[in-house]
Amino acid sequence: MTSHPPAGTPSGIVLEHVTKRFGRTEVLTDISAVLPPGRIYGLLGANGVGKTTLMSLVCNHTFRSGGTVLIDGEDPAENPVVLGRTCFIREDQPYNDAFKVRDVLSAVSWFYPDWDAALAERLADRFHLPHRTTCKKLSRGQRSALAIVISLASRAAYTFLDEPYLGLDPSARGIFYDELLLAYSEHPRTIVMSTHLIDEAAGLLEEVLVLHEGRIVLRADADEARTSAFVARGLDSAVTALVGHREVLSERRLGSILSVTVRGARTADDESRARAANIALEAASLQELVAAIGIGGIGGVDTESFTTQRTSR
Amino acid sequence: MTYARRSLRLYLANRSYVTLIPGGILVIMLAMSLVIGVAIGMATEFPLSAQIQEGMRENNGGAVYSIPGFLISLGALAVNRNFAMALAFGSTRRHFWLGTLMGFGLTSGATAASAVVLLALEKATNHWFFGVYAFDVAALGKGDYVLTFASVFVLAVLSLALGALFGTAYRAFGTKGALLTGLAAAVLVVAVTLLSASNKEIVGSWLGALGVWAAVVVAAIAAAISIAGSYAANRLARL
């Protein structure tokens, strides 16, 4: 049982045994996690694993089927003070059809006392957002840019970003990453960001939560996560011998070439054996780690230590 | 109240749409009444005969019939268009609903005020100079300003609340839910009508006691039921 801090104290997000079902389909299963405030979290995982649903539950956009959600020690459900500290623009966020971009930006300012109008203006300029265009006519990239402008300028204590880069070209994504870090350093807050461009965003993330089949299967510091697996690539027989009985998260074959993602840190012995056998060894990137989890699937889960039980070679 | 006011501002963002158009519809209804009056006058005489004027005064219900269509759609749109935005910006469902309801009050007030102003003009111009009755009519209390304001206000609230009820039912329960809400409303109306018909004397005495305010009170009760229904559905509304 988690002991909760007094209500109102900035204490982050607490999830206890959170479950969400849509009809007979269980989308989220027994999610428990504590997200201390003032960090940038990456919510990672394949399509349909429940990333958006989890953020929706936290912000009470969707009703949970079971469990407890607390923000700063209070249940956010119909709690105006707590929800007033959140900003969650969904990837497919509906806007009033009649609203132009400038109308939306005006409207947001009414909801956030700390709304940074100057930042909104600057970001809108940098993303070349057309102020006089109605939201329904915006391109995919422009909708993402609008969501980024709202999220960052809201200065909400809990900012949720749902695939914020969709449709953005590389330079616009660069602007987003720069501005996110700048906004975060000037006004620290808790940011939860779901993303598929994991390697690109990896530098921003302080902690990652990887979802698979509605469960958190990896919760780790971003740097720690990167050292939690390595990739070995070479001749099938040599790679198989090197890996031994260690846990393989995923494997790919091309003829006699085998590439495996192995859980755990590589050792000095691994390095010397790999050199001798012409095997390429490298740290798994976050992207590779998440992809490996998505490909392989995971059984029993310990969300704190990533000690999931998988088939070992 | 601070939280509800944010959603009220959202409702009022397109101010002319929610405050001026209902009055505009009344002006269009007036224009149509004038065209009909001119057509009758051209076939008979100007000003219109006392008999025709009395007929218009008793039977012209344009002010009542012209309002609900637009306001029902406005009510349904208001709870759907802004709902997702309000939630994204950290509003609760309850405060979104309260703010929107306050907006309904303003729209209804503006509509009723428009009717009263048009009634005053109608009287001041001796019924538009040739005996056309559009607002000084039996349906609005035959020139009684208070009754005219109350009738239009309650009718506007009822229309907006009905629209909001269907809109929130759709948000909470999907298309089938909205359909079932419509069916439930129809069953309720039929049941009340049948009950009233089978208890004519009792209902007649109640309505008789209310006098000219009977229609306003009945509409107000229907509006209260719709508002309660939309509040209940709003608690379950989803994105």
Write a structural description:
The complex is a heterodimer of chains A (313) and B (239). Chain A has 313 residues and is α/β, with parallel strands linked by helices. Chain A folds into 2 domains: 13-223, P-loop containing nucleotide triphosphate hydrolases (Rossmann fold), CATH 3.40.50; 228-296, Alpha-Beta Plaits (2-Layer Sandwich), CATH 3.30.70. Chain A is 33% helix and 27% strand. Chain A contains 11 helices and 13 strands. In chain A, strands 5-6-7-3-8-9 form a 6-stranded mixed sheet, sandwiched between helices. In chain A, strand 8 (207-212) and strand 9 form a beta hairpin. In chain A, helix 4 (117-126) packs antiparallel against helix 5 (140-154) and helix 5 packs parallel to helix 6. With 239 residues, chain B is mainly alpha-helical. Chain B has one domain. Chain B has helices at residues 2-11, 15-19, 21-43, 50-59, 62-81, 83-88, 93-124, 127-131, 145-198, 200-210, 214-234. In chain B, helix 9 (145-198) crosses helix 11. Chain B is globular and about 60 Å long. The model of chain B has no long low-confidence stretch (mean pLDDT 94). The interface between A and B is medium-sized, with 35 and 25 residues.
Low-confidence parts of chain A lasting 5 or more residues at pLDDT below 50?
298-313
- Count of helix runs of chain A: 11
Residues in helix, % of chain B: over 70%
Strand order of the largest sheet of chain A: 5-6-7-3-8-9
On the 0-100 scale, what is the average pLDDT of chain B?
A: 94
Quote the beta fraction of chain B: under 5%
Tell me about the biggest sheet of chain A? 6 strands, mixed
Find the CATH superfamily of the largest domain in chain A.
P-loop containing nucleotide triphosphate hydrolases
Overall shape of chain A = globular
Give a quick set of tags describing it.
heterodimer, A: 313 residues, alpha/beta, Rossmann fold, Alpha-Beta Plaits, six-stranded mixed beta sheet, four-stranded antiparallel beta sheet, 13 strands, 33% helix, 27% strand, disordered C terminus, B: 239 residues, mainly alpha
